[in-house]
Design goal:
The complex is a heterotetramer, with two copies of chain A (115 residues) and two copies of chain B (144 residues). Chain A is an alpha/beta fold. Chain A has four helices and five strands, in the order ββαβαβαβα. The mean pLDDT of chain A is 96. The complex binds adenosine-5'-diphosphate (2 copies).
Chain lengths: 115, 144, 115, 144
C-alpha cells in the first residue's frame, strides 16, 4: 500500500536531516508528526526535511510542518524544506507557505542556512 | 481525452482508503479535458473533501460509506461526494489567515480553503434528511 | 464510564461559552480539541471555558488549551478559563500556565475581560 | 492509613483504561501515608506515565499489556510500571520551555516534565531484553 517512509539522521553539527518518501496525507501525517515531536522532545530543533522523494502532500501533511516550524523557531532552531517536487511545491504555493518556510535546493545550502 | 466520463467508486471511511480515491480521480482526470497542469490540484481537492468525511463525518465510527462520482465532458469536471454521516456545510467555514495559522502553530483547518482555491464551485446539499452531498466543479474550455 | 461532557453556547456579543464536565485526559482530549477547532473554523475566537465541573485534567488536556490560546489570540480572540477546581488549578500551576492563561471567577468577569 | 501496601493492576493500552488506573492509584494513596495535598499529584504522575505507554510504547497496536504495581510504607510511595512495548528512556527527554510551548501552540511533550516535577525519583530500566520498567517514587515522612 502506498505509504510514507521517513528516515532520520542526526548530524554532528546539531542539524538533523529527515527524508520523507511517498505520500504525506490524512492517513500518514501522524507518523511524520510523531517523528518530529520525538526530535523536539530530545532538544533537536534544527531540522532539514528532504522532500525530493515525496510524491504527494495534502493539507494534513502541510499542517505537520506548519505546526512544527514555530516550535523549532521558538527553540532557536528552524525547519528547512529541501528539494520539494513540483507537485508538493505547488501545494505549498496554494497555501501561501512558500514565503514562510525556508526552502533550499541542496544539503550544503541547508547547512549554510543554519550557518 | 475529453470524452464524456461517468464513473463511481465507493469506499469506507478509513483514511487508508484515501490513496484508492486519489488513484480513481487520477485515472479520470487523465481521461478528461482537465489540463495537465491542473490535474494534481483536482486530485488534491477531492482528497481534501473525502479526508474530511473520513475524519469528521462519522465521528469516530469506522465502516461509514463514502461514494465519489465523477461526471465530466468538455465543459466541466464534476465530482459528487456522498456520505451518511453528520450534516456539515463547508459554507460555514471561514477562510483561514495562513500567517496566523503558522504563528500559532495550528495544524488543521486548511482543507476547505484548498478545495475552494482549486475548484470553481463547492456546493453542499443535504438530501432527504439522510445524505450529505458535496459537489465540486472545475469548469473547462470556454467556460473557464 | 467516566468521560468528558462539553457544552457550547455562542452568545450574541461574539463570545462563546463552553463548559467541560468530567475528565480531560489522554482519552478525552480530542473531543475538546475538535470542539474548539470547529469554533475556530467558524471564526469564533473569543472563548470562555467553564471548568467548575471538571474533576481532572492531565497534560494532554492542558495541551489542548496550550495549542488553542495562540490561535485565538492571533485572530483577535482569547481563551479564558472560568472557575477551575483546585485540582485542575494545581495542574496549571505545576505546568507554569497560571501566568499565561486568563483565569476568571465569574461570567461577568469573563465578559468584562473581552470588554 | 500508612500501613504497608502491595497492590497490582494490569490493563491493556487503550486510553479508556486510564480512569481505572487512576481509581486504583487513588484508592492506594488514600490508604497510604501520602499527605492529602499530594495525593492528586501522585495520581497525575502515574496517569502521565501510563498514558505515555498507551500512546507511544505499542506504536498503534492495541491489546498491549501494562502492569502497575504499588508498594508503599511510611517512608515511600513507589509505583512500578511495566510494559513490553518499545524501549524508551524518559531520561532522554529535555525539560520543556513552557512559554515557548505556548507561543508555538505545541500541545504535547509535557508528561515527562510533570512526572519529574511531582515525583522524587523517575527511574527507567530495560530488563531481560523484553520489559520496560519505569519506577516512580515519592518519599514520605522523615525521608522527604
Ligand atoms: N464532512 C465533514 N463532516 C463534518 N464536519 C466537517 C466535515 N468537513 C469538515 N468538517 C469540519 O470543518 C472543519 C474544517 O475543515 P477543514 O478546513 O478541511 O480542516 P481540517 O479537516 O484540517 O480541520 C473540520 O475541522 C471539521 O470540524
Ligand atoms: N512509554 C513510552 N514509550 C515510547 N516513547 C515514549 C514513551 N513515553 C514518552 N515517549 C516519547 O517521549 C515523548 C515525550 O513524552 P511526554 O513528555 O510525556 O509528552 P507527550 O506524551 O505528551 O508527547 C513522547 O512524545 C514520545 O515520543
Amino acid at each position: 500500500m502506498p505509504d510514507l517512509n521517513i528516515t532520520c539522521e542526526p548530524r554532528g553539527d546539531g542539524l538533523t536531516f529527515l527524508t520523507a518518501e511517498g505520500f504525506l496525507d490524512a492517513h500518514t501525517f501522524e507518523k511524520m508528526e510523531k517523528t518530529i515531536n520525538a526530535l523536539f522532545d530530545e532538544g533537536k530543533y534544527k531540522l532539514v526535511v528532504g522532500l525530493e522523494k515525496l510524491d504527494y502532500i495534502s493539507s494534513a501533511g502541510a499542517g505537520v510542518f506548519i505546526g512544527a516550524i514555530g516550535v523549532a523557531q521558538e527553540n532557536n532552531g528552524n525547519l528547512v524544506l529541501l528539494n520539494p517536487t513540483p507537485n508538493v511545491k505547488e501545494v505549498f504555493d496554494l497555501l501561501g507557505l512558500t514565503q514562510i518556510f525556508p526552502i533550499v535546493g541542496s544539503e550544503a545550502e541547508a547547512t549554510a542556512f543554519f550557518g | 481525452m475529453g470524452a464524456a466520463i461517468h464513473r463511481e467508486i465507493c469506499v469506507t471511511n478509513e483514511t487508508e482508503n484515501l490513496h484508492k480515491v486519489r488513484e480513481f480521480v487520477s485515472a479520470a482526470v487523465q481521461d478528461s479535458a482537465v489540463p495537465r497542469e491542473e490535474q494534481n490540484k483536482v486530485i488534491l481537492a477531492v482528497d481534501e473533501a473525502v479526508a474530511n468525511v473520513m475524519e469528521h463525518a462519522y465521528e469516530g465510527t469506522l465502516g461509514g460509506s463514502i461514494r465519489v462520482r465523477i461526471e465530466s465532458d468538455e465543459r466541466r469536471f464534476e465530482v459528487l461526494i456522498r456520505d451518511h454521516g453528520r450534516r456539515f456545510d463547508p459554507g460555514r467555514i471561514v477562510d483561514p489567515d495562513i500567517e496566523a495559522h503558522v504563528r500559532a502553530g495550528r495544524k488543521n483547518g486548511l482543507g476547505v480553503f484548498l478545495m475552494r482555491q482549486i475548484m470553481d464551485k463547492v456546493d453542499y446539499d443535504f438530501r432527504d434528511e439522510a445524505e450529505n452531498r458535496l459537489t465540486l466543479v472545475k469548469f473547462l474550455g470556454a467556460d473557464r
